[in-house]
Amino acid sequence: MSFTPDQHDSALNAAIGKIFRRIVPLFVIMLICNQLNRSNIGYAESHLEADVGIGAAAYGFGAGLFFIAYALFELPSNVLMERFGAKIWLTRIMVSWGLVSAAMALVSSPEMFYVLRFLLGAAEAGFFPAVLFYFTRWLPDSHRGRATALFVAGSSIAAAISGPLSGPLLSMDGLLGAHGWQWMFGLEGALSVVVGIIAFFFLDAQVRDARWLTDGEKDALTNRIAAEDAVKSSGDRGGSRWRLLAQPKLLLFCWIYFAIQLSIYANTFWLPSIVRRIDGTDDVTVGLLSSLPWICAIIAMYLAGRAGDRMGDRRPLLIIALLTAAVGTWLAAVVSPWPALVFLCLAAMGFKSASPLFWSIPQQTLSPRIVAPAIAVINSLGNLGGFVAPFGFGVLKEQTGTVTYGLYALAFASLLAAASVLVMRSGKARPAAETNEPAAR
Predict the structure, then answer these.
(1) pTM of the model
(2) 57/59 Cα distance (integer angstroms)
(3) 3 state DSSP class of 55
(4) The Major facilitator superfamily (MFS) profile domain covers which part of the protein (predicted)?
(5) SS3 content of the chain, % helix, strand, coil (to 5)
(6) CATH fold of 5-232+244-426, please?
(7) Per-residue pLDDT averaged across 339-355, rounded?
């Protein structure tokens, strides 16, 4: 089908608008469920210690085991996603992690806690890179940053609502003879299963399969993405797909994302513990106060995503975000609990904004031949920060009685990551056809 330039832009604009209204919100909801199931143990920590005998170090080790399994199964899961398609594989991932998360209600020993956390990581592996890869096949680069920011905002939304949600669920202690933490794990796990089944009927594997797009919109969208792929592929020198994955810049990507994940997961698992230092708090008030940094982060992430799409080169904004995280975290370590919460809000705006800004860079610069496995490799190795952070915090807290030294370490990691971004090369230029950006509504 041939288009005039105006018709092409109009059709592309309409297609992108539909994706932002139909697909992006669905992925946000899926990530909210994902993060609730991944991080709700942060609110159950003291209860698991009292009822099951899981101490701080054992809790940190169990929380981190999730990421060991995640790293081991991430790339195989991503390869299977390419074989079976995003629709089937994303549904499988979500239903399986919901079932495992619900089984956490049956934990009766530290060993069982370790096994279920490992199984949760194995079940969830592949979800995040599958969604990012989906964006590379459905959205042009001019809108991928905003889509990624909105998607990643789901984790901040989950963190913001998990406190107000977990507090009342924990207060159900004794209902029908079950502990409050058992109600929390069971109900939040069941929610993921239901949303996963619903997602199966909303997702399409390819643009051409989408009945909710017109033929003209499908053509405009696939033509734009094909043009961008051609630009990114122009520098390929041939060779195997796996040899392309051995590029040094891939290791740099892994390190930077590892540093970002250190801050994200240290705060995800230990923020409630930090907030408990404030006098007079209980389960409900800790949950409410713990939501504040994530609410601030949601706003900062979307604004950073829009600014990054307009600038094209996201590196300067990524450096600013990482420096903000470093300063906020360091100040939170040296002040009293109430001001510390304020500075943790600042830090969250930094390290959460860094995530979508970072992911736009490999999406924009890597060859289409390796973008799916590369995202999986970066995500799996980077997510090992999710093991190091909670386990390291647990050991430090048990040895020193405080998380102050852990906050110092996070600040240093963010500062070093900001310096590492300076050695990145800027992204490749966009196709000329992309200079007239359609708006996402």
Answers:
(1) 0.70
(2) 5
(3) coil
(4) 23-429
(5) 80, 0, 20
(6) Growth Hormone; Chain: A; (1.20.1250)
(7) 88
